[in-house]
Amino acid sequence: MALLDRAIVRVLPAVPRPVVRRLSDRYIAGSEISDAVGAVRRLNEAGKKATLDVLGEEIETREEALAIRAEYEQAMATIEAEGLDANVSVKLTGLGLGVDPALCAANVRSLARDAAERGRFVRIDMEDSSTTAATLDLYRELRSEGHENLGIVLQAMLRRTMDDVEQLVELRPNVRVCKGIYVEPGEAAYQGVEAIRFNFVEVMAALWEAGAKVAVATHDDWLVATALALIDERELGRERYEFQLLLGVREDLADELVRGGHTVRIYVPYGRKWYEYSLRRLQENPKLAGYVARDTLRRLKP
Ligand SMILES: Cc1cc2nc3c(=O)[nH]c(=O)nc-3n(C[C@H](O)[C@H](O)[C@H](O)COP(=O)(O)OP(=O)(O)OC[C@H]3O[C@@H](n4cnc5c(N)ncnc54)[C@H](O)[C@@H]3O)c2cc1C
Q: pTM score, two decimals?
């Protein structure tokens, strides 16, 4: 299947923009904040919370970083004005990490303050392993300044993650645990499905053991069942965990978790950079192209 995935990726740039738009439609709320509001409202009505992601990572100038920060400010003001149950997820490269780390820190600090005034939460997404140390350092710095409404992400595929858990637990962090979406070299990351699943479970268990809140971000039935068993065994209250899924992915699973009485939050990307984002994500990770292609074919079947 990997060969087919790579073949799909190779032809992607030749696929007309409207077709890419149609393919990514299920996974991206739209290009404007009004599109995101519509998507979040539908999710809230179905008993799901949301986290908004303004598309636009890896910017190259200070102006672009400030523009993304302004979009997040608009997103948070809109969430509040519309009375939506949502928070935001930010990417440090989008807020200027690669341009000027001090600017990036100032942007996240300002968003955390803005969110706190509105009683909201800011999740710092995790990007590829070249940014892990800087991301965790900034998280620690901002927590030490008292920004309690900040959360972080740890990737089960990275070999360093259990060490990071040990370094973080004294902060009683709010951690999204996911497998990791970036293609990483063998020195940095486990490559096999089973090794990644094993580490995912170890990381979740260690975080719960230390009193942290865990956002279990996966569409993997086995991992969801294992997380549910751990939650049950430890008799964890709703304040200690939630499940998170991507917009348009495994809606059946999200509905089942809601019916089971669990908190479910959906990651809702939106923004004018939808085309660049879709193409880059698919090119970086051929497995994703395979998921989308298979999912689309399934839907086309009578
Ligand atoms: C809420 C949320 C936030 C995330 N944040 C980050 C982050 O900050 N940093 C990071 O590196 N990664 C992030 N990820 C991505 C994550 O690391 C995985 O790459 C992704 O979730 C796929 O892994 P999986 O655990 O769902 O298992 P998989 O085994 O990859 O997927 C299980 C099944 O889910 C379906 N599926 C999974 N992904 C897709 C998709 N994109 N389209 C269609 N079907 C799909 C397929 O049917 C697949 O068989 C996030 C994921 C979620 C759900």
A: 0.93
